[in-house]
Amino acid sequence: MDDDYTSIEDYFSNEVYLTHSSDYEELLGNNSRPELSPRDPTELVLMYAFNAVIVATGIVLNLVLVKGIIGAKSNGALLFVLQIALIDVLTLLTSNWELYYYIRRTWIFSKLHCTLYSGLESFTSMAVVYLIIGLNFHSISSYNLAVELSKNALATPDAESATESLTEENNYEVATDSISQKRSLTIDYRYKKRRISVRLPILLVWFIAASESLPLFLFADIETANPADSAEQPIKRYCTELTNTVANHNIVSLMVIAIRIILPSVALVITLAQTVIKFYRGKHFTQPDEIEENVAFSLKLSIFLSISYVVFTLQRLYGSLLQEIILQPKIVPKYPGFNPIVGISLAVLHYTASFIRPLVLIIMCKQKSNNVDITFTCQKRAENNSISLQ
Fold first, then answer.
1. Rounded to an integer, what is the distance from CA 98 to the centroid of its chain?
2. What burial class does residue 249 get, using C-beta atoms within 10 Å of its C-beta: 0-12 exposed, 13-18 middle, 19+ buried?
3. What global pTM score does this model have?
């Protein structure tokens, strides 16, 4: 103890009157939220326009697409489209967090919002790219199955014998108390080759995305940083992802780069090239009747969704995510290598994909040449006042 006290009264009086108020001010200043400047009118206009045009309209379009696919009880490739539409809704719901984060250059929301934003951002980015890759593999497999069935049909000289070889009728006796009835059981062995299941790949994608984003839901936090260049600048608050934890280890960082950036990029490019080749080769033969799914339309969906991801979202993996991982443990905002105007433009470009995708997919489903029986709007019947999808 630096000071000598002759009594307890001297000790308490000295502690009370010699306390420096600057110590409390410094403590309060470090824990306080950053001072926010008044909102720029331009910022308000941009945010309102973004929410009205991209977010609100995009959510409505995705929900319309989801309703149409569920109402048509579609399967196959359209089940992948259904999952992507749901992911796009989540993506648009998290967009405001990021745009405010980037415009203000500091996190202005609570810790709970930081946790939700970090986890959902990771989950949606992982799920959408792997769902598109899964759709590409499904379209390629459907094409290969159609080619195989087409070759088998050409190799069979007699169509009736081919039908008999695939479909077999077995007669059996059913004994009852008083009579014996003869019934016919038809076994269609072609059913096993008509479709390719998509439930397991979809569940696998959801599992991968949830596993990758779970640590962020648990450990994402807000870090406060004092500006080093000027003491007059307000305190910066960053919504960080596992800062100063085991996630900063080099091995973990390399695993994240491999799973979230390298692997999906390579798989997407390879499967996109394959779907384009299969689509142009498919023009030379007629799809067999045994295939229930429209293979040509499935390939079209794969090509469009893959190209849309490359155009709108691939820049985010290398321009933002990769830079954030490389610069760890230093705390940086999104798009650290770009100036604010370019950075926010790239962020808006990324979220625009969730608005463009459902719009184009609805148009593709409505085209008669694609032969897709999906209805998106409701129309009242005058006869019995019931509602039917049109």
1. 16
2. exposed
3. 0.77
